[in-house]
Amino acid sequence: MRKTKVFKVTAENRDKDKTFLLIEWPASVTEEWGMRALMAVAQSGVQLPEGVMGSGVAGVAALGLQAVMRVNSAEIVQLVNELMSCVMALPSGEAKPDLARPLIEEDIEEVTTRLILKGQVFELLTGFSVADDTSKVLSAIRSLGSKNTQT
After folding, report:
1. What's the distance, CA 109 to chain centroid?
2. Pick from 134, 146, 121: which is nearest to 22 by CA?
3. Which of 51, 58, 71, 124 is least surrounded, with the fewest CB atoms within 10 Å of its CB?
4. What are the helix and strand counts (H, E) for the chain?
5. Phi and psi at residue 92, in whole multiples of 5°?
6. CA distance 66 to 10
7. pLDDT tens digits, residue range 131-146?
8. Is residue 144 a contact partner of residue 64, using CB atoms and an 8 Å limit?
């Protein structure tokens, strides 16, 4: 069963109190997305630790903060925008997944809401929160590096 998460906007802006349902991609889609993201990072010239190419979204999560700044902007924009396909609107404002519907342009009025939703989807897919788990990401990067230096 796919993971889901209900997210309610609490920021004081035009999207305050809007509610969204986030739905995890199937494993095959998540795996493909992770591999494309890792390939984009690798093609940008970032030195990837050995073995990271086979780690899919876990590798993206571990390398994301370090590597995103060096990836071709068109590639990263496309990959990050694809995260929005996991977001559905809950127009009733209630956490009732059976009332969810695909997003329409008018559902989100603030850029910050889109950014937060993408971060929430990334967390749902990878288990890493860009906002809350920076230390976990840094630890994972160090771990990948130390595995590659051991003989």
Report:
1. 20
2. 121
3. 51
4. 5, 4
5. -75, -15
6. 29
7. 554 455 445 545 655 5
8. no
Lowest-confidence segment of 8-12, 24-28, 32-36 by average pLDDT = 32-36
59 close to 140: Cβ distance less than 8 angstroms: no
Going by C-beta distance under 8 Å and a sequence separation of 6 or more, which residues neighbour residue 60?
34, 37, 38, 41, 126
Give the residue from 136, 129, 117 showing the smallest Cα distance to 23: 117
Q: Model confidence at 8, in pLDDT bands (50, 70, 90)?
A: very high
Residue at token pair 């937060």: 116
Measure the CA–CA gap between 128 and 83, rounded to whole angstroms: 14
- Name the strand (E) or helix (H) holding 74: helix 73-82
Which residues have C-beta within 8 Å of that of residue 150, sequence separation ≥ 6?
none
Six-digit token string for 115: 């950014």
Total structural domains in the chain?
1
Domain of residue 136, residue span: 4-149
Q: Is the pTM of this model over 0.85?
A: no
